[in-house]
Amino acid sequence: MGQSREATTSSRRLLVVAAAVLLILLAACGGPQETVPPITVDHTADAGSQPLAGASPLPAPLPALPAAPAVPQLLAPLSAIANRTGPRVCEKFGSVPVAGGRFEVQNDAWGASTPQCTTAFDTGFSVQANHDKDSGPAAYPSIVWGCNHGTCTRGTPFPRPLSDLGDVRSSWAVTVPDSGRYNASYDIWLDPTPRRDGDNTGAELMIWTVRAGGIDPIGSKRGTVNLGGAAWDVFTGDNNGVPVISYVRQQSVRQVLDLPITDFVHDAQRQGVVQPSWYLTNLQAGFEPWVGGTGLSTDAFNATRNGV
User: Fold this and answer.
1) How far, in Å, CA of 272 to CA of 268, rounded?
2) With a threshold of 0.90, does the pTM exceed it?
3) How does pLDDT run across 13-71, given as a tens digit for each residue?
4) Looking at the DSSP assignment, which residues form a beta bridge with residue 184?
5) Of 14, 146, 164, 178, whose Cβ has the fewest other Cβ atoms within 10 Å?
6) Residue 91 falls in the annotated catalytic set
7) Taking every pair of C-alpha atoms in the chain, what is the biggest distance, in angstroms?
8) Is 104 in the active site?
9) Structural domain containing residue 113
10) Which of 6, 91, 104, 204 is labelled catalytic?
11) Which of 6, 34, 91, 288 is catalytic?
């Protein structure tokens, strides 16, 4: 009985201690609690507001990427090189239309008795000849736009008064041999009248893009000009009573793109060779072989006025 009472007393003591601990815990949990104020976000703060104390400043925004440069659109784009097969013209002054009649390819073997043939195709022509002449060009195989000795190409804007010439451009790609004496040149004809046949009597304007074998244009060197982004030596002379002005590119090139023909015409007016009251009757691009001829080729050609 004595041991039972002691056990009961111990149990009561444990219960008292547990109750006291529970009360202490409840008091701690049930006491007044501090209220944490909410964080206010200022949505009106701008990029120039000051950063919080101790915070690292935000990096500056990246600059906008520059716009890609616009690729200029050619007014006289070149077509893909056509199949090089086509009619073969061997008559001295024979010609044939190409590109649906927009242009005309002519053999024009005017300056020598040696045989020459020209194979025409839609974007150009190739030459077969073996000339050997020291005194001047043997021929001018070429592609024509405009009216030339009674033949007018389809839809041509020429003859046209220089006062309404517009923006005439031409692109031209050629293949030339490593040997021989020749040029690759534009031949532009001007007349006091809107001539469609016969010989032009105003002026001849030539633009040499390639010069090979040490040949020179008619006349003598007059100076240098910069046109179409390149330097040109200017020669003036006389061809059977017709004034000739020739622009020879100081660095020969096998391709020109959007060559500004109008700028050359205006410069020829400034030089006093061409009169502003005249007409441009036709534009030609071809080769003047003195020695050789085979291997000369117009791979692609185009010419436009105001992009048409």
Assistant:
1) 6
2) no
3) 555 445 554 444 544 444 444 444 444 444 444 444 444 455 456 556 656 666 655 55
4) 210, 287
5) 178
6) no
7) 158
8) no
9) 88-305
10) 204
11) 288
For 138-152, how does the pLDDT look when each residue is reduced to its tens digit (9 = 90+)? 999 999 999 999 999
**Strands 124-132 and 116-121, bridge-based pairing:** antiparallel
CATH no. for residue 155?
2.60.120.180
**Which two structure tokens, joined as six digits, stand for 104?**
């005309």
Tally the domains of the chain.
1
